[in-house]
Request: fold
Amino acid sequence: MLMMKKVQIQKRMITRLLKIKEVYAHCDIPCGIYDPHSAQIAALTVLRMMDLIAENGDNPRYVAVKEEHAEICKHEIRVIWGDAIKDNSSDDLTHKIMQVASRCKQGSDRKDGEELLDLVNQFAEKFWQSKSIEVKKVKAPYKPEEEIVEPDLQ
Amino acid sequence: MIYRVKGKSMEPLYKEGSLLVAVKTAPLVGKDILLRDPREKSRILLKRLVKMDSEGMFVEGLNRGMSTDSKEFGKVSKENYVARVLFRLW
Reply:
């Protein structure tokens, strides 16, 4: 134990004396799993909360969940855009998603929610096609029962 | 120049906290190199140089299941090359 402490102190001293720089043996995501599905679920949740707000009024919980999932949607899209997409072809679409998701956080206009879902679906379509995977449109089996783009893995 | 390793993508050869000596000589395929992260130029990466051609350098981590490298960000332009690892101190 004393020996280990001594070695650690020596390492620290050498680091300070020699001005050692850090190099990154780096891993963003150990599993390498990228899937826009989480963003689509978040966009559907935003839309569902907008519907509930329209039906039942401005319940703070609906508003909080709407804002939280608009932020989740932005985060999920940003991670795929930054880490998995190698070219610039999705830059404009990603920027648009960021803007519309922010609008969804600020207000409860269903048109904004629909636009967000549409843009995220476009993003998903481009993402899967970039992996040479065909896509299909399916209606979500739960409210708000909107269409989402999924990989056709048959 | 001496560098300290941060991260696990070059295990088992370089562990978190390993110290290594690298010099600014020409890159060699099959050797471990330091290069600027093409996505964040201020960060220097440690990777193995697997292939090199006119399009750039293809680099990989030794710990393949846990490495963000050319499999993710593609070939890296040669101007991002920093130095070649000579040896590991510990």
Chain B has a mean pLDDT of 89. The two ends of chain B are 15 Å apart (CA to CA). Chain B is about 5% helix and 50% strand. The CA atoms of residues 58 and 75 of chain B lie 5 Å apart.
